[in-house]
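= Protein in question =
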Amino acid sequence: MTTKKLLNSFAILGLMTAASQAQASCEEPPFSTLSFTICKVWPAYDDQNIVATSIYKPDSADGNNDGGNIDLELSVIHSASSKPLATYRKTYAYYSDAVAYEGLAIDTARYKLTPDDRAFGIRSKFEHGSSVSPYHKTELALYLKDGDALRPVLEGLVIVMGRGEWDGNCAGQGDRTQRTVDIGKTVHNGFADLVVSSTVTETKNFVVGEKCESKSKKLKTTQVTLSYDGKQYVVPEALKG
């Protein structure tokens, strides 16, 4: 057996082990560390589970600093046998530093991209915890089964983002963006377009006497259509983190 085949065998064995462990805990509460495995039944295919594994690699050998890379492993497994049906691995999928990686969630909304193909989503969460300049975001990626592999068809779409500038006590302003993704009626390169609707809510805090008052205003919802270019959906910079 060649070295490449041997490494592939170890990778598949690792995914099978993680998938088997995850299947038994699909309904358990989420993880508590940055290295974890989660699992979710795929409603579109009731005999299949989606497994996501996050592997945190700190920058320093002793792990004392706040920075590090996160590898991502995904698999779709047969529910009864835990046999991997399709797999995916990305080294250095995310980076955690001042804007810290907070984990993943599996999204099984109805992402029907073609009459025969459904994708599932991975939502990755990041946060900069600060009372003066807070920031958080959630990114969405979509994956499609392509033979025995999983292929990313959408990456880097920010679907939730919040940010602000505050004085640490009361006064300041911020905004929160919430996005939804719907399947469009038009098609490009065989895949349905994705219609992304964005709603921004602006908030201002100010001192009135001895009280901290707050006012919020929801702006008009806007829409952007994402088209498939033959490999992935093209995400404009304005919708990225």
Q: What stands out?
A: The two ends are 43 Å apart (CA to CA). The first helix runs from residue 3 to 23.
